[in-house]
C-alpha cells in the first residue's frame, strides 16, 4: 500500500498558527484550576451538560429503511464500542433498519480483505488510519460518498477534515471521530501527595517524574503491549523537537529513519523509557500493559496508584469513567510538554466509509456526518468530533468541552498522526513495523542505532523503496 498521494494533500502539510497553541493552552489552564470537577461536593463524577436536555436532536432527514440489515465494522472495544452502539440505536429508531456492530481486528485492512474475499464485507467500516482508506480505495472496496452525506459533510466540516476523507479528488469518507493525541492525564491526589508540579517543558516533565517517583509512586503508566501508544510518544516528541517540516517528510518517508533527527527524538524518549523507576512495572511491566489498563491503574488506589500520569488522547476519559476518579477533580490533564520551542499538537481520527453500494450504508454515513450522531456519543464522554456544528454543551464536563473547543478552533492547523499516514504494514500492524520496533526500543532504550536501522528497513519495505 502506497501513501505518497496522501502526503501531497494539503491537510498533512499545513502549519500551525497561534490559535492552536492558545486553544490548547486553555486546556492546560483548566487542568491547573481543576475546573469541571465536583465543585458542589455532590460526589458526581462528571458535570452535567452545560445546556440542553440530552435528548438526541434530529437536524437531518433520513430515509425509511424498515427491514434493511446493516453491518458496521470498527476496531473499537469496551466502553468505546458501547457508546457507539447508542448512536447506532438512534439510527435504528429513525430509519427502522437493524444495525449490527462487527468487532474488527488490527490491521483492519487485513480483516476487511478477508471479509471481502468471503463475499461478506460490512456495509460501513470505520478506519483508524489514513493509509487504510487509501488501501480500501485502491482495492476497489470503498464506495464514493452519496449526495446526502456529501451535503452534511460540506455543511459541517472544515476543508482539512474533508480532504483527509478523500482520495484522488473523490470523497469517500466521513471523519466521525477525532482525537487530540497530545495530552497527559494525571492523578491529582498522587501529585498533591508528592508535591509535584505540572510541567510545561520536557525538562520539567522529567523533574516532575523524579519527584513523583521519589514519593513511592511510579511516574508514568505506559500501555506498551499496544504498540500504537509508543508511536504516539515518539510522534509528539519528534514534532516538538524536529519541527513540522521534518515531521511531514518523515511521515512520507522523504527522509530516512536513520536521520539524525530520529536519533535525537529516540534519545529524548530514552530519558523516560530508560528509567525503570519512572515506569509502572518497569520496562517489562509496561510491555505487558494494554492501553485500557494503563489508564485505569493510574486512577485507582487513591494516593498510591500504579502510576501518577498516563499519556494519551482525549479518549482516555472513556477509561477513566471505569474507575472511581472524577474528571476535573481527581483526574486532570495538561498539554504534552514542549521538547522544542512549543508543545506538539498531534491529531488522529476514525473515518467512516461505505463498502457496499446500498441505500442503508449511505444513510448511515449521512447520519454520522451530521451533528446528531456525534452529540449522542459526546454525552458519553471520551469522544471528540471534528464536526463544527456539534453543540459544545453535549460534552459532559469542562475539560472535555475545552478539548473539543480547541480542536474546532484549530481548524485545519494540526499534524495528523504519523503512523496512521503510513502503509499499514509499517504503521498499523501489531507485532510488526513501527509498533514492534518501538516495543523493542522500550525493552532496550539504549539501542538507538539498532532501533533506527530496524525502523528504516521496515519503512523502506512498506513504502516500496
Automatic annotation (TrEMBL):
PROSITE patterns for this protein: PROKAR_LIPOPROTEIN
Q: Where is this region: Disordered?
A: 38-59
Which terms are listed as keywords in the entry?
Answer: Transport
Q: Which domain of life is it from?
A: Bacteria
Which residues are the signal sequence here? none
Coiled coil ranges: none
Does the keyword field hold Transport? Answer: yes
Q: Does the keyword Transport apply?
A: yes
The record, for PANTHER family, names: ARABINOSE-BINDING PROTEIN-RELATED, OSMOPROTECTIVE COMPOUNDS-BINDING PROTEIN GGTB
Per the similarity annotation, which family is this? Belongs to the bacterial solute-binding protein 1 family.
Identification of the protein by name = Extracellular solute-binding protein
* Organism from which the protein derives: Streptomyces bambusae
